[in-house]
Amino acid sequence: MFEEHLQNTIALVQGNPVIGIGVAVVILALFYFRPKDMFKLLGFCLLLVVGFYLMTILFETVGSGSKQKDEMIHKTRNAIGE
Fold first, then answer.
1. Alpha-carbon distance values, 5 to 1, 2, 46, 82 (Å)
2. In angstroms, rounded to a whole number, what is the distance separating the alpha carbons of residues 73 and 68?
3. 61 close to 68: Cβ distance less than 8 angstroms
4. 0.70 cut: is pTM over it?
5. 34 near 27, Cβ under 8 Å?
6. How many CA atoms lie within 13 A of 25 on its CB side?
7. Using an 8 Å Cβ cutoff, are 13 and 19 in contact?
């Protein structure tokens, strides 16, 4: 999911370098004029990304465990002849 968004963003910046430069200038200006607020925002965004990453790992683990359980139930039913 993140890889797809990153690839789309890179394609956008490569296709429209003026937009990329404009966004970079705005971000740098905000970091220069409002560094405290921007570092708070950066920390909050980092916290959101880490939380989302941990949630996806947890959901993948739960999903694979449920899948294995279902497979074992079907193997057991096949072994006893149901």
1. 7, 5, 16, 47
2. 9
3. no
4. no
5. no
6. 6
7. yes
Residues 6+ apart with CB under 8 A from 13: 19, 20
Question: Cβ of 5: how many Cβ atoms within 10 Å?
Answer: 9
Scan for tokens 């279902």, then name that residue: 70
**Separation of alpha carbons 3 and 7, rounded Å:** 6
SS3 content of the chain, % helix, strand, coil (to 5): 95, 0, 5
> What's the pLDDT band for 3 if we cut at 50, 70, 90?
confident
Question: pLDDT tens, 28-74?
Answer: 999 999 999 999 999 999 999 899 888 888 887 776 666 666 666 66
Tokens coding 58: 């947890």
